[in-house]
Amino acid sequence: VPVAVLISGRGSNMGALIAASLEKNYPAKIVLVISDKPDAKGLEHARDFGIEAVAIPRSDYDSKPDHEAAVSAAIAASGAQIIALAGYMRLLSGEFVQRYSGRMINIHPSLLPAFPGLATHSRALSAGCRVHGCTVHFVTEAMDEGPIIEQEAVRVAHDDTPDTLSQRVLEAEHRIYPKALAMLARGDVRMSRDGRALFKDSI
Ligand code: GRF
After folding, report:
1. Looking at the domain that runs over 108-203, which CATH code has it been given?
2. Which of 108, 121, 137, 174 is catalytic?
3. Which CATH class is domain 1-100?
4. All structural domains of the chain with their residue ranges
5. The ligand 1 atom nearest the CA atom of 11
6. 108 catalytic residue (yes or no)
7. Is the complex ipTM higher than 0.95?
C-alpha cells in the first residue's frame, strides 16, 4: 500500500517507517514525504533513501485551505492511500481530516488519553508518572484524540529528565509506528463509523 508521510522536522519516525518499508514482506511503501518546513532535516534523510520529498510551506499560500489543497494534490499525485503524520506540527482542518478518515494515523509521545498536546515528557515528569510512553492513533478532528491503534509503555526512572525520558520514548515510537502502519496496511485494524478502532479478530 502506498503511503505519504507528513513531517515538520527531524523525521526520525519517518526514517523508522522508511526502514521498515524496505524490509521484505512489509505491506506498505513510502512513496512521498511532505514537509511544511523547507529546512526539515527529514527531507534530506528521505532523499538519501531515494524517496521523493517535497516542501510545501504554509507561507507560499494565501490561506490554510489553499495550503491544504496543495498538500492534498501532492498526495493524490503520488497515489498514496494512507497518510502517516510523523511530527507534523500543523493542525489539519476538519475537511482534510474527513477526506482521509480511517486512512490517516499519527504518532504521539504519551500514553493517550494522558497528555495530549505539547511538552508531554516534562508534563509526565511533573505529574510524577512512573510509566509514560507513546501512542499511534487514527487522526480525527480533535487533536490527539482519535482511536488508539498501538501503544508502548516506558518506565520512568527516578533521575529522568525530559531529555533522557524522551530518548527512551522515541525508541519505543520507532518500534510501534512501523507496527501500527503495517496493521493498517494489512487491514488488521480499521476505524468504524462511530470512531472506534476495530481489530482483525473483531472486524
Ligand atoms: C515525536 O516525538 C512524535 O511523537 C511527535 O513529534 C516527534 C517527532 O520526532 N509527534 P521525529 O521528527 O519523528 O524525529
Report:
1. 3.40.50.170
2. 108
3. alpha beta
4. 1-100, 108-203
5. 12
6. yes
7. yes
Q: Is 87 in the pocket of ligand 1 (CB under 6 A)?
A: yes
- Fill in the amino acid letter for 144: D
Distance 68 CA to ligand 1 centre (A): 21
Residues 89, 8 contacting (CB under 8 angstroms): yes
The DSSP line for 13-49 is HHHHHHHHHTSTT-S-EEEEEEESSTT-HHHHHHHHT
Residue 45 Cβ < 6 Å to ligand 1: no
**Tens-digit pLDDT profile for residues 154-184:** 999 999 999 999 999 999 999 999 999 999 9
Instruction: Indicate which atom in ligand 1 lies nearest the CA of residue 134.
Output: 4
pLDDT in tens, 1-52: 999 999 999 999 999 999 999 999 999 999 999 999 999 999 999 999 999 9
| Domains 1-100 and 108-203 are alike in CATH topology | yes
